[in-house]
Design goal:
By secondary structure, this protein is mainly alpha-helical. It is built from four helices and no strands. It has helices at residues 4-22, 25-43, 49-130, 136-175.
């Protein structure tokens, strides 16, 4: 035995099918043929003209009532879908704002790291100037350290460029 929920789903599917069919070319053709037949019946003497108009008017009134109900059901269903989509859009906008804030924080951190690296480079240069008489091993260590600092500086520059690129993409998403 079907539950009331299953019955409601079945009725909704039936209503969707009817609404879809009513808005089709076959429906237009069938309705046109029925109207032509209705008006031809009195011409051939099958039915009295007044009775035909009475029956036709009653049938059309009932059809109009059911069509308006079906159309309102479709409108209600569309409104529910639109509300769901609006909620999804709001969630996406919140996510974009959070990502934007995170990128700003990363950018600030990178600027601080860049300043620290510049300070370290200055310290290394001062050490190099002060200790011209150091042995060969010490000079090699400093060269390696300086190379690492330059490498880190290049990586930071690369990360800054990536952040700027991500920021541009976020700005484009906000515009859309």
């Amino acid at each position: 035995m079907k539950t009331s929920h299953e019955n409601i789903e079945l009725l909704e599917k039936l209503a969707d099918g009817i609404t879809s069919w009513i808005g089709s070319i076959p429906s237009l053709i069938i309705h046109t043929l029925l109207f032509l037949t209705s008006f031809l019946l009195p011409v051939f003497g099958v039915v009295d003209f007044d009775k035909m108009l009475l029956v036709l008017t009653t049938v059309l009134s009932l059809e109009a009532i059911y069509l308006s109900i079906l159309i309102q059901m479709s409108v209600n269903k569309s409104n529910e879908k639109i509300e769901d989509i609006q909620e999804d859009i709001e969630d996406i906008q919140e996510d974009i704002e959070e990502i934007s804030e995170d990128i700003e924080e990363i950018s600030e951190d990178l600027e601080e790291i860049s300043e620290d690296i510049e300070d370290i480079q200055e310290d290394i240069e001062e050490i190099n100037e002060d200790e011209d008489e150091e042995d060969h091993n010490e000079r090699a260590k400093k060269a390696i350290l300086k190379s690492n600092v330059n490498s880190n500086k290049n990586e930071i520059k690369f990360l800054k460029d990536k952040i700027a690129e991500l920021q541009n993409k976020i700005d484009e998403l906000k515009k859309d």
